Amino acid sequence: MARINLFDTLKERGFVKQCTDEESVRKLFDGEAAKAYIGFDPTAGSLHVGSLVPIMGLMHLKAAGHNPIAVVGGGTGLIGDPSGKTEQRKLLTREDLRKNFKKIKKQLGNFLDFDGKEAVAVDNADWLEPLNYVDFLREIGKHFSVNKMLSFESYKIRMEKGLSFLEFNYQLCQAYDFLVLYRKYGCRLQMGGDDQWGNIVAGTDLVRRVVSGQAYGLTFPLLSTASGAKMGKTSKGAVWLDGELLSPYEYFQYWINVDDRDVERFLKMFTFLPMDEIGRLASLEGAEIREAKKVLAFEATKICHGELAASKAIEGAKAAFGQEGDNDNMPTSVFPVSRFESDVRATEIFVEAGLCASKGEASKLFKQGGGWIGKRQLKDHRETISLSDFDNGESIFKAGKKRRRRVIVEK
Hints:
With about 400 residues, the protein is α/β, with parallel strands linked by helices. Helix content is about 40%, strand content about 15%.
């Protein structure tokens, strides 16, 4: 049976936005194991859901028998990518970038087995920091046209508010990454978000100019939800991939609460389910679409946190929403019994339990009838909580239709 070409898989699942040469990339994937890379920015100690598209791209690459290279930008991170930013990024110290690199490399290892042969993770600081600036300008800088660089959208946007010379060098450094990877690993494809198109094209052009090599670029769409919100952002902040920053249960809840209009697209991009199964799930309507969302949430959580964590998240969700499940798998807050020996304002506990960001938000929630302790509905900010609200030392707190928290009091 003929192997399905990876390019066709990526296109069918919605990963392809732009490509420098579709036919050549398709041929690249038809041959022996091809090497392709994606860069990840170590500006934080964790990636978030917005990084899942490139991560899934590398996973598909590996699953198809090709060799993924993850470049964590410890070197380019010292400059700061101006793409998609209206102002210059806050510059991080080398120490912070090194810490972030280690965390992100470990996190990427949850998705890909970096064995140093079939899958590789590298830090571009290894070759960027030792560069002699004058030699770099003579060897690399001479191949760049300022006029062409300024024609790319990422630079055009920044020219309105000011583009620092530091940031202007970012494209040269990223292009140089491609040249290094081409020389060292035979890497012939760079993939990334569509905001990286200018940097990717600069890299393919540099490989051609310096070593007369054939290199290609492919970009993924920059995802937003059907409502227009940026992918990976919620009212409570970023949807982190680190289980310590966002529990697997909360990660599961993010996916199960996506807009109905996003379900089919997200099943294609964030799961490995066969396309015919995705088609079946996408055809569900009305209340049945909830089943498709459960599958999406389980599969996405399994990929990020493992099958056991995904199963526990399902059990926790069942318990939180009144079905038969295991309360131990719900997100839980523990308070000393002394906290409730005298009545305490419910607004305070809702904030401390992480159900509301502020007392004002909690007060507004109660006025709208969205605050519950067990079966007791809270009316306004004057409501209090006492030990009588707990059954055998625990209770389920609810904030709106979707947020639940198990609250335990202990001596």
